[in-house]
Amino acid sequence: MVELRYHAPYMEWAKTRPAPEFDLAGSNILACSLDDLPGAREALALDGANDTGYRPLMEAIAQRYGVHADRVTTGGGTAGANFFALAALLEPGDEVLVERPGYDPLLGAARLFNATTTRFERRFEDGYALDPDRVRHAMTPRTRVIVITTPHNPTGVVVDPAALDEVGRIAERQGATVIVDEVYKDATGDASPPAAARGEVFVTTSSLTKSYGLSSLRTGWVIASEAITYRARRARDVVDGTGSIVSERLAVVAFEHLDALLTRARTVLATNKALADAFLAAHPELQYVPSAGTIVFPRVRGVADATPFVERLMKEYRTAVGPGFFFDAPAHFRLGYGGDTNKIRAGLERLDRLLAAVHGSQGMRRSGDAGE
């Protein structure tokens, strides 16, 4: 594998891995069809002004999240939004703090801007809680950005608001900014304002991808102060100029029906999460922290590296989960349950069969300590 300073190995794996029969590796809600968006066909058109963003879409985002449209920058999914936010905030040699376990495109994007990435721990033993003291101790005089995901990717754990506020105070004292990736938030039923509403030290990134089943639209956004928004929009000028007017028109239709889409998503998620929770409860050999959103991050008790288990699951049972080493936690695997219910059920059945086959055996590399 070619190593690049901006490499995101998980994303490369996700795009190039063999196609499973049952996919428990993804984190999207079951994809929508055009029939889930009344008026979508009528909205399709190739014209429209979107020089600094398609204004109807920016206003729809702003209205939904209680901010002014001048604080919104659109981008290609949350990945694009995170890229523009980092571009707005970083200079070469700056330092970015990123949580561990964590989502590797956040590291890759920071490195693309010649920033140094430093990690702070969200520990299994603490329920993956955000610990402001760990953030404080990881900071250096060069720290300019702190990146947090809530619900946390890969564990699905929601950040405590008081801890987030304290991280904001820590950042503000040093002149740093906190980017909060909230892409899974809406699916949890959390209707609280975006993190950016907590003060100008915070930037929110999100999209229609994970919580709404609309990944194919690639509609994401940054919510930030007007000063950061100006810089983020100028970053977009040199990346793709503008978004796709076709996607942005469809995204406006989606916002017109967002409550219905959320009801659909939460119905799917409630059914599938119940399946996943029951599965986990039935397997004491799996250790995990209860999660929200569309993912959970279990580990097999006593196993130091779950990679052989993950590979066997794919090879013999045609079922995929996300290898934990991509998230800096090789003892774990990421289990996604936002997709088609029948396929989730079937994938869990195959995971059950593999656990039955290996439980108590020496089929996987073991250690006395299954820590991070």
Provide an overview of this structure.
The radius of gyration is 20 Å and the shape is globular. With 372 residues, the protein is α/β, with parallel strands linked by helices. The relative contact order is 0.17. It contains 12 helices and 14 strands. It folds into 2 domains: 9-29 and 260-358, Aspartate Aminotransferase, domain 1 (Alpha-Beta Complex), CATH 3.90.1150.10; 42-257, Type I PLP-dependent aspartate aminotransferase-like (Major domain) (Aspartate Aminotransferase, domain 2). It has a 7-stranded mixed beta sheet with strand order 2-8-7-6-5-3-4, sandwiched between helices.
List the helices and strands and how they pair.
Layout: H1 9-16, E1 22-23, H2 40-43, H3 55-65, E2 72-76, H4 77-89, E3 95-100, H5 104-112, E4 116-121, H6 132-138, E5 143-149, H7 161-174, E6 177-181, E7 202-207, E8 219-223, H8 226-237, H9 245-256, H10 258-281, E9 286-287, E10 295-296, E11 299-300, H11 307-317, E12 319-320, E13 322-323, E14 333-336, H12 341-358
Parallel strand pairs: 1-12, 3-4, 3-5, 5-6, 6-7
Antiparallel strand pairs: 2-8, 7-8, 9-11, 10-14, 13-14
Helix pairs in contact: 3-9, 4-5, 4-8, 10-12
Which features does this protein show?
three-stranded antiparallel beta sheet; 14 strands; 12 helices; Aspartate Aminotransferase, domain 2
Spatial strand order of the main sheet: 2-8-7-6-5-3-4
Distance between the termini: 24 Å
Helix content: 25-40%
The total strand number stands at 14
**CATH architecture of the largest domain, please?**
3-Layer(aba) Sandwich
Query: How large is the count of helical segments?
Result: 12
* Nearest-integer average pLDDT: 93
One letter per element, helices H and strands E, the order comes to: HEHHEHEHEHEHEEEHHHEEEHEEEH
Q: Which CATH class of the largest domain is shown?
A: Alpha Beta
Largest sheet: 7 strands, mixed
Q: Rg, please?
A: 20 Å
SS-based class: alpha/beta
Overall 3D shape: globular
CATH homologous superfamily heading of the largest domain: Type I PLP-dependent aspartate aminotransferase-like (Major domain)
